[in-house]
Amino acid sequence: MNKEIKSYNDSQSNTDKVICQKLAQEIDKHLSEAESKIWHRHPVWFLNGNPIVGYSKLKDSVRLLFWSGQSFDEEGLLPEGSFKAAEARYTDESQIDTDDLKRWLEKSRLIQWDYKNIVKRKGVLERLL
Questions:
Q1: What is the mean pLDDT of the chain?
Q2: For position 125, what pLDDT does the model report?
Q3: Comparing 78-82, 97-101, 124-128, which segment has the lowest mean pLDDT?
Q4: If 0-12 CB within 10 Å is exposed, 13-18 middle and 19+ buried, where does residue 60 land?
Q5: CATH, residue 87
Q6: What is each CA distance from 71 to 24, 45, 52, 79, in whole angstroms?
Q7: What are the φ and ψ backbone dihedral angles of 22, each rounded to 5 degrees?
């Protein structure tokens, strides 16, 4: 696991730390080719420089965010923001369904919107792949 991400996880409360560790472990397992780093103060995984998935501590939960998740057509993911992102929120490790997470991670590899170049395109997203 990326050392910065491990430090981020270790800095959380006990319950949130367990959630973050589980998410990082599953993401690393199923997106082994992805680059991971702390980006805008949160753990994020990238494929070819494009942000794919990450998580962050919110006031009442840990949010798992898929940048292109609205295109996955998955009931367990809720729209987030004004682009194509979708999220799931967790307050306990037992809420993480690893089968769902694996399927979402597989879709995150196959279904991508080009967030890497969104500034160049003045806020216009284009589908990759």
A1: 94
A2: 76
A3: 124-128
A4: exposed
A5: 3.90.1150.200
A6: 22, 18, 12, 10
A7: -65, -45
Structural domain boundaries enclosing 105: 3-128
Q: What is the pLDDT of residues 87-102, one digit of tens each?
A: 999 999 999 999 999 9
Rounded Cα distance, 79 and 59, in Å: 19
CA distance 68 to 126: 11
> Within a 10 A sphere around the Cβ of 95, how many other Cβ atoms?
12
The count of structural domains within the chain is 1
Handedness of CA 64, 70, 71, 75 (dihedral sign): positive
Of 79, 68, 75, nearest in space to 106 by CA: 68
Can you name the residues that pair with 114 across neighbouring β-strands? none
Q: Whole-model pTM?
A: 0.92
